[in-house]
Amino acid sequence: PAVTVEPSKPAPVVSTTPIQPRISLPVGKDHTEKIKGMRKAMVKTMTEANNIPTFGYDDEFDMSALVDLRSKVKAITDEKGVKFSYMPIIMKAVSMALTEFPMLNASVDKTCENITYKAVHNIGIAMDTQDGLIVPNVKNVQSLSIFELAAELNRLQSLGLAGKLGTSDLSGGTFSLSNIGAIGGTYARPVILPPEVSIGALGKIQALPRYDNHGNVIKKHIMCVSWSADHRVIEGAYMARFSNLLKSFLENPGLIMLYLR
Ligand code: CAO
């Protein structure tokens, strides 16, 4: 794999302080300023994305087994200095599902005449930073362990918060995820990052009442997931089947173990 992670080396501690835009406005007076830097890049990408005929597909995933699993391994990863959120497990499961649904890990050219199925899974993670939205990607997710993914995500998050992400971390993404649930909310409408063809948004994991197989109401940890895909090349049914496979991995983490290479 292109990414090498040293598990025994503690990753830098990541601040979880909420990020607010750094603007101080004059009181009682309008203020106009140039849109520049990362926000200027966002203007270009998002305007381009708006020309793509996009469909949305949403579902809710029962994350109860994963909440339990994470609470069991977190002490081990904490000891190794790696902050372990749900993202590394979700990324690995997404990569395993992408292997079965390669059309979602693809790019199209500007005129949408050619589609390229990507050989690697470079999963972009939308990050909320002082400078605006940035989407660094973890390279070769298909060949990294879940622990290596956690360490790599810590590295990207630290660099992102410090405004120090380089071009190599920010380019070459093949599929994207936006964990808006780290801030709050349920469903979202994520916008595709061209030339990619699909993106997923993850809502906040919430403890909610749901029925079990015997009709009893029990407490479950529910995460709403919202997908957007380029409808010129992806059919809704294809996205729904991908989402179902991912759901089965996340709801039954034992399956991840079974199919992990
Ligand atoms: N539901 C419930 N809890 C969540 C969660 C979710 N969806 N996502 C994260 N958490 C929890 C984590 O498990 C962690 O809990 P502990 O403190 O108990 O360990 C805590 O919230 C902080 O997590 P984090 O945000 O530091 O780490 P992460 O790997 O889950 O997410 C990142 C990293 C970069 C995706 C996230 O910090 C972020 O910036 N999200 C915003 C993305 C965004 O702005 N999207 C919109 C793009 S379109 O404008």
UniProtKB/TrEMBL annotation:
Its EC number is 2.3.1.-. Residues 1-18 are annotated as: Disordered. The keyword Magnesium does not apply. Keywords: Acyltransferase, Lipoyl, Mitochondrion, Transferase, Transit peptide. Its cofactor is (R)-lipoate. It catalyses: N(6)-[(R)-dihydrolipoyl]-L-lysyl-[protein] + 2-methylpropanoyl-CoA = N(6)-[(R)-S(8)-2-methylpropanoyldihydrolipoyl]-L-lysyl-[protein] + CoA. Signal peptide: none annotated. It is found in: Mitochondrion matrix. It comes from the Eukaryota. GO terms for cellular component: cytosol; mitochondrial matrix. One of its GO terms (molecular function) is acetyltransferase activity. Belongs to the 2-oxoacid dehydrogenase family. This is Dihydrolipoamide acetyltransferase component of pyruvate dehydrogenase complex. The chain holds residues 257 to 517 of 517 of the full protein.
